[in-house]
Amino acid sequence: MTDKTLPLDGQIALVTGATRGIGRASALALAAAGAHIIATARTQGGLEALDDEIKALTGKSATLVPLDLTNGSGIDQLGYAIHQRHGHLDLLVHAGAILGGLTPIAHIDTGAWDKIVATNLTSVYRLIRSIEPLLKAAPKGRAIFLTTGRVARPKAFWGAYGATKAGMEHLVRTWADEIENTDVRAALVDPGAMRTKMRAEAMPGEDPETLPDPSEIGPLIVELAQAELGVPAASVLFPEWKQSRG
User: Fold this and answer.
1) How many CB atoms lie under 10 A from the CB of residue 115?
2) Which of 35, 51, 53, 108 is placed for a possible disulfide with 13 were both Cys, Cβ 3.0 to 4.6 Å?
3) Is 0.85 topped by the overall pTM?
4) What confidence tier does 232 reach under pLDDT thresholds 50, 70, 90?
5) Rounded CA separation 201/100 (Å)
6) Does 125 qualify as catalytic in the annotation?
7) What mean pLDDT comes out for the span 62-86?
8) Residue 64 pLDDT more than 70?
C-alpha cells in the first residue's frame, strides 16, 4: 500500500552522480519523500550501497544504472529503458560532474579537457535530448541541474570546470525558454561550499567540518521537485535558501 501523505508518492526520479555527495543526498531525500529512484553512477558497488540505504530508509529498492556520463549512447539507452518501463519521468536531478583538477588553462592536457567537456557539458545536451519527451509525458516534469558560483566568479585554475558549468547553464536556460509553453520546468541550483569529495579535491587544506553536510540540501531538492518554477533567470542559491529557513 502506498503512503499518500508522501509529497512525491509514486513519482519517478532520475538522479545522476547518485552515489556521492549532493547526488546521494538528493536520491535519499527524494526516496524518503516517496519517489522511486533511478540512480546512475560509474560504480556498481556505490550504487548497491545507495540501494541498501534507500531500502533501509523506505523499504523499497531503487533502479540502479551503472553509467559513465561520457557514454552518450548509454544515456540514449537509459531514456529508452525509462520509456519502456514507466512511460514518463517526473524528475531529473543532474548532480554528476567532475572537477578535472585545477590547472592553468595553457597547461590543461587535451585528453583531460575532452573528458571534462564530455562529462560536464556534452552529457547535459545528451540528457536533455533523451529525457525531454519523458518529462513532457509527466503531469509536471521537473529538471534540476547543479551548478557553481565559479560561473559568475571565475578564478585562476578553475577554467575547465567553470567553463563547462557556464556552458551547462546556457544550455539549461535556453532549453527552459524553449519549453516554456509546456508543463516542464527546469531549475539551476548553486549549492555553495559543501562537504563533498569534489570540494576536498579542490580545497585540500580546508576543514570539512566547517562546511554544510550534503544531506542539508535534500529538503531543497524535494521542494523544487514540487515547485511552480519559472524560466531560471538566476540560480537557486542553497546558502540563501538555508538562511531563509532559519
Assistant:
1) 16
2) 35
3) yes
4) confident
5) 10
6) no
7) 98
8) yes
